[in-house]
Amino acid sequence: MKQTILLVAGARPNFMKIAPIVRALQARADRFDFRLVHTGQHYDREMSDVFFDELGIPKPDFHLEAGGGSHAAQTAKIMVAFEEILQRELPACVLVVGDVNSTLACSIVAKKAHVPVAHVEAGLRSGDRRMPEEINRLVTDAISDWFFVTEPAGVENLLQEGKPRESVFFVGHVMVDNLLFQRAKLEAEGPGAGESPALKARLGRYGVVTLHRPSNVDHPETLGPIVRALGEISRELPLVFPVHPRTRQNIERFGLELGPGIELTRPLSYMDFLNLWKDAALVMTDSGGLQEETTALGVPCLTLRENTERPVTMTEGTNTLVGVDPQRILQAAAAVLRGEGKAGRRPELWDGHASERIVDALDRLL
Ligand code: UD1
């Protein structure tokens, strides 16, 4: 029988994970119908709509417009609006991705309505409960029915937490499905559009920076030293820094001076950003996804955090955890620039076919 799946996407890092799942479901239209819900957690054009256009995600069937506000306010708005949709649609399953507030909100609502929840990118644990995403991961995994996992550590975490082995599926990474698909498109299309072609031509060798985690950007005593360390590095290696709205607000609010070698841009579209970082000498970030994407393409990455929920990027990939101590950042960047960065290899099953494995599993489960 044909089954309807409700797909949830809300924030920028969800969109690239939903795109390949949509393609895999479309390829099995004999078996599955899907409806797409956009919670509206991210609402600026450059944080949201541009990704739908570029990644070929169909227009959402439902837009909850539940963005902005504190964590509680945002989560609550999403829950109230999603409950109404769920009651109307009565899907066979709700599929959530990642670890953002939308993931948490919709999985709770679905479970209370007795609708099975599939969590894509399940089982990751940073061990840091001060991180909002860690709470979202723990709660979502506590109540989900089926767990689609990107790396072996995720499987171990879920089994240790008592999940039945048959509910845990090591499938690889849907974000890498999207990455390989979009990179092939980019290579076929020539130099690319947007800001990256001109930046690349002008800068030659360059690094890329992204920062948005509250623990790094919400306090001047942390953001200030990070920005000064970046300024230091930028004397040797020009840095392009596409800024998340919250980080831009804080740089201005704290009156921080950026070194002359740092170029701020607005948040870039997926393709424009990919075109930029894939050829960077070095990426410095506090993002979860970019740690993995750089590993997938073999680009050296320094993660400006004390922990990672994605350990395979360190054990097998190109990622090094450097924390936020300026000296450590400077030393690690210098090592990469001397050609002493990690070589790394692409982790198991990061092969572009995770979404198909997920849809195959759902075919057996539903
Ligand atoms: C969210 C996710 C984080 C993810 C990040 C990627 C949670 C808990 N966090 O963090 O895991 O890595 O997205 O971008 O879900 N804002 C805008 N326009 C927008 C969206 C946000 O101006 O389109 C500003 C607003 O001031 C907003 C703030 O950014 O209040 C924070 O947005 P929010 O969605 O709460 O969290 P992010 O920091 O974006």
Automatic annotation (TrEMBL):
Its EC number is 5.1.3.14. It is an enzyme of class 5 (isomerase). It holds the Pfam family Epimerase_2. Residues 28-362 form the UDP-N-acetylglucosamine 2-epimerase domain. It comes from the Bacteria. GO terms for molecular function: UDP-N-acetylglucosamine 2-epimerase activity. Keywords: Isomerase. SUPFAM superfamilies: UDP-Glycosyltransferase/glycogen phosphorylase. Belongs to the UDP-N-acetylglucosamine 2-epimerase family. PANTHER family: UDP-N-ACETYLGLUCOSAMINE 2-EPIMERASE (PTHR43174:SF1). This is UDP-N-acetylglucosamine 2-epimerase (Non-hydrolyzing).
